[in-house]
Amino acid sequence: MAIQKNIQIKNRKARFEYEILDKYTAGIVLVGTEIKAIREGQASIAESFCEFNERGELFVINMTVQEYSHATHFNHNPKSERKLLLNKTELKKLFKNVKTSGLTIIPLVLFTNDKGLAKITIALCRGKREFDKRDDIKDRDNKRDLSRLKKSFNN
């Protein structure tokens, strides 16, 4: 596997399942071979979510980073919890919203910045109801049909 310059691993289900209220960019605390595996694109945030521990620290749960192929027995655990790095004010605001409003924090994009550091874009979300999802599907179908009509009209 060749190491790619810009990695962007997206959580495609998040925008369909949740209504996004606010976005934050956070750093991730990684161990040894995790960053190398992420730079190879061997990560997934599809089923992941974020949780606070008893000390008020934010962790991403269920984020999968596959084991690095060239590592020895010092490899990492693929499904371990990883701490997120945010400002104290941002953490307090998120904690308050999660506890009082019943909102959830979902990772949207895992990426590497210009310096090669792994960052994650997280969002404060509210779960969509079934009729909201149906409306989204209807809107998407209407846009697709409209673009087909425009294309056939222009030709």
Descriptive overview:
The structure is a single chain. With 155 residues, this protein is an alpha+beta fold. It has a single domain (8-128), classed as Small Protein B, Chain: A. The protein contains four helices and nine strands. It has helices at residues 14-17, 34-39, 88-101, 130-154, and strands at residues 8-10, 18-28, 43-44, 49-52, 58-61, 64-65, 82-85, 104-112, 118-127. The model has no long low-confidence stretch (mean pLDDT 85).
Strand content: 25-35%
CATH topology: Small Protein B, Chain: A
Morphology: globular
- The succession of helices and strands, N to C, reads EHEHEEEEEHEEH
Low-confidence stretches: none
Q: Give a count of the beta strands, DSSP E runs of length 2 or more.
A: 9
Provide the structure class.
alpha+beta
Keywords:
155 residues; 7-stranded antiparallel sheet; 9 strands; Small Protein B, Chain: A; alpha+beta; single chain; two-stranded antiparallel ribbon; 32% helix
What can be said about this structure in brief?
The chain is α+β, with helices and mostly antiparallel strands. The chain has helices spanning 14-17, 34-39, 88-101, 130-154; strands at residues 8-10, 18-28, 43-44, 49-52, 58-61, 64-65, 82-85, 104-112, 118-127. The chain contains four helices and nine strands.
